[in-house]
Amino acid sequence: MERETMCIQAGYQPKNGESRMIPIVQSTTFKYDTSEDMGKLFDLEASGYFYTRLANPTNDYVAAKICALEGGSAAVLTSSGQAATFFSVFNIAGAGDHVVASSTIYGGSFNLFAVTMKRMGIDFTFVDPDCSDEELEAAFRPNTKAVFGETIANPALIVFDIERFANAAHAHGVPLIIDNTFATPINCRPIEWGADIVTHSTTKYMDGHDATVGGAIVDSGKFDWMAHADKFPGLTTPDESYHGIVYAEKFGKEGAYINKIVAQLMRDLGPIPSPMNSYMLNLGLESLHVRMPRHCENALAVAQFLEQHEKIAWVNYPGLPGNKYYERAKKYMPDGTCGVVSFGVKGGRSAAEKFMKGLKVAMIATHVADAHTCVLHPASATHRQMNDEELLAAGVSPDLVRLSVGIENVKDIIADLENALAEV
């Protein structure tokens, strides 16, 4: 089945006389005839539901669709992309462990790793995604449990060399985790390039309409946990908090990782999405294959317009010929990258601020990757507490504008940019 068809039909197949759309099972609990029936669920001897904090049919239908789109073996939804990022690592790393991560990942993920998870006793080494082979090799330690990167970095727009990092991770007996939020499985399927686990902030392109916050984790089912049993005791030794089950033995490499998240982490931490949110996410997924080409087409046209404009100092878009990552993007994402473009306005911070005030179609918002064209000037918004020197040290130039190109008519988007630049 092709991805376009999967967006519509994967994950839920109604039987004769059943609802065409996935049902919204808006219930916290589920009834059983006997205690023995429920006991089989608690022993993971039977499939089913007993409490939505662990799992819910609506959520599972949508998770199955995303799993199919990514070409994985199992998947689970979370209440946010941040929760998905956290669970993807915490499921296999604990106090005293170490993880290698790209230094250019989304700032929220960076803080999660460098601050919050560090307080939990997990150490992270951040490497430049374009580091040398020697630098990458030096980042690994005997207690390294995973490598983490983003297909397209948010907001740096650096294209990650998935195949290279997958080979390095596997040489050290650990999985590669890839955040595929910006590319989506329409433009890139990291599992096909060696990634073992894929995460998403479904809040972005998958929902696509600013309607629901959510996340997803997909397991490729290809990493052999038992072959590296000493590194992953949580999967390869008995879980005494769940009747002594050994996940890798019970569910095999295809199901161990996700079943542990559901049975253990969801049980204890509970960041499950509401069934209604999952239903709305599914509506977004049904048009994902239509929207992504339009985002990419519009973004490329905008990038080409900006590249030729006399008041623009620089443009960064991986789909633009001449971009540092253009060839790598063509390898991993031959049909397009994403709809996010960053650029600098000549004249620095003050010129960028004047430009922002002149926009009418593009909405000023912290969000990215949805149907609306959204724009942000970090120096006067999310990073306004920093002076110019501090901004540069953080990798955010004072003139930087991040534009998330929507699916409106591109003529209107470009006219809006042209009018705003005329006021600078």
Automatic annotation (TrEMBL):
<dbReference type="Pfam" id="PF01053">
    <property type="entry name" value="Cys_Met_Meta_PP"/>
</dbReference>
<keyword id="KW-0808">Transferase</keyword>
<dbReference type="GO" id="GO:0005737">
    <property type="term" value="C:cytoplasm"/>
</dbReference>
<dbReference type="GO" id="GO:0019346">
    <property type="term" value="P:transsulfuration"/>
</dbReference>
<feature type="modified residue" description="N6-(pyridoxal phosphate)lysine">
    <location>
        <position position="204"/>
    </location>
</feature>
<dbReference type="InterPro" id="IPR006235">
    <property type="entry name" value="OAc-hSer/O-AcSer_sulfhydrylase"/>
</dbReference>
<dbReference type="GO" id="GO:0004124">
    <property type="term" value="F:cysteine synthase activity"/>
</dbReference>
<protein>
    <submittedName>
        <fullName>Bifunctional O-acetylhomoserine aminocarboxypropyltransferase/cysteine synthase</fullName>
        <ecNumber>2.5.1.49</ecNumber>
    </submittedName>
</protein>
<comment type="similarity">
    <text>Belongs to the trans-sulfuration enzymes family.</text>
</comment>
<dbReference type="InterPro" id="IPR000277">
    <property type="entry name" value="Cys/Met-Metab_PyrdxlP-dep_enz"/>
</dbReference>
<dbReference type="GO" id="GO:0071269">
    <property type="term" value="P:L-homocysteine biosynthetic process"/>
</dbReference>
<dbReference type="GO" id="GO:0030170">
    <property type="term" value="F:pyridoxal phosphate binding"/>
</dbReference>
<keyword id="KW-0663">Pyridoxal phosphate</keyword>
<dbReference type="GO" id="GO:0003961">
    <property type="term" value="F:O-acetylhomoserine aminocarboxypropyltransferase activity"/>
</dbReference>
<dbReference type="InterPro" id="IPR015424">
    <property type="entry name" value="PyrdxlP-dep_Trfase"/>
</dbReference>
<dbReference type="InterPro" id="IPR015422">
    <property type="entry name" value="PyrdxlP-dep_Trfase_small"/>
</dbReference>
<dbReference type="InterPro" id="IPR015421">
    <property type="entry name" value="PyrdxlP-dep_Trfase_major"/>
</dbReference>
<dbReference type="GO" id="GO:0006535">
    <property type="term" value="P:cysteine biosynthetic process from serine"/>
</dbReference>
